[in-house]
Amino acid sequence: MLKFISLGSGSSGNCYYFAQDDDAMLIDAGVGIRSIKKFLHDKGISIDSIKRILITHDHADHIKSVGVISSEYNIPVYATSDVHAGILRNYCVPKKIPEIHQQVIEKDVRVKLGNFYVTPFTVPHDSSGNVGYRIEVDNGTEEGLTFCLMTDVGHVTEEMQKYIGEANYLVIEANYDKQMLRTGPYPQYLKVRIESPTGHLSNHECGEAIANFATAKLKHVWMCHLSEENNHPILALKTIEQVLRSYGLVAQKDFIIEDLKRKFPSELFELD
Predict the structure, then answer these.
(1) Which structural domain range is residue 23 located in?
(2) Domains held by the chain: number
């Protein structure tokens, strides 16, 4: 059984917890270390149980605590060489990852990390080598369990389409509502950046990606990285449900879909 918790999902900080039996890891560490420790403790989990951290990209809201966690708890950090270089340059990470804990992984190369098989894949975004992760675990069935995480998505590539189709469980960005963004207070250059092919995924685009590429394997979708200024969880869900209906799909019947909170942890999901 795979255990999953979102410890924060948004521009204030992103961090996701995964555990399989006695093996546990984080994806991203953009939430403050005190909050990470508290949120885990509240679920009966010690931060000492974390065996590794995987990083998607080098923006501050995904990495600001990675150096201090790695240093204080002797935890290896896995990222592409471009992302590791970006972390070293980022002034928002005052305590850097010790060199001994800097572990390099390559895009599109499947690796075994403890109880997990992990494949990093390219996700378009204006950062140093942004990746998503395909995570496979043994759940006692022939096919196993596949969890895909793709956040900070400028657009959905053919490779990402394939991974969506393979997923039993999917975390995917639904960052903004187009009307809210275009009529909102953001400066024009930032609006252009967000809507660009290396920016973020809108609610409608998220719905289209799920509707077009998900298969009957899909059981649960979590919308992640919702903008506080340009989105609302109810609006995101309603927009995606409307897109799905236009394709003959019914949310909460064909699969569960819900949002991940920006600043608070989710429940602990037990997935099989």
Answers:
(1) 2-271
(2) 1
Tell me the two tokens of residue 78: 């896995």
- State the pTM of this model: 0.96
Site of tokens 């998505």: 153
**Angstrom distance (rounded) from CA 102 to CA 264:** 29
Each residue's pLDDT, cut to its tens digit, for the chain (272 residues) gives 999 999 999 999 999 999 999 999 999 999 999 999 999 999 999 999 999 999 999 999 999 999 999 999 999 999 999 999 999 999 999 899 999 999 999 999 999 999 999 999 999 999 988 999 999 998 878 789 999 999 999 999 999 999 999 999 999 999 999 999 999 999 999 999 999 999 999 999 999 999 999 999 999 999 999 999 999 999 999 999 999 999 999 999 999 999 999 999 999 999 99
Q: Mind giving me the DSSP string for 64-101? A: TTHHHHHHHHT--EEE-HHHHHHHHH-TT--SPPPGGG
Domain containing residue 207: CATH number: 3.60.15.10
Strands (E) located in the chain: 2-8, 15-20, 23-27, 50-54, 77-79, 102-104, 111-113, 116-122, 131-137, 145-150, 169-173, 220-224, 256-259, 269-271
CB 119 within 8 A of CB 108: yes
Q: Considering only CA atoms, which of 237, 251, 152, 253 is closest in space to residue 203?
A: 237
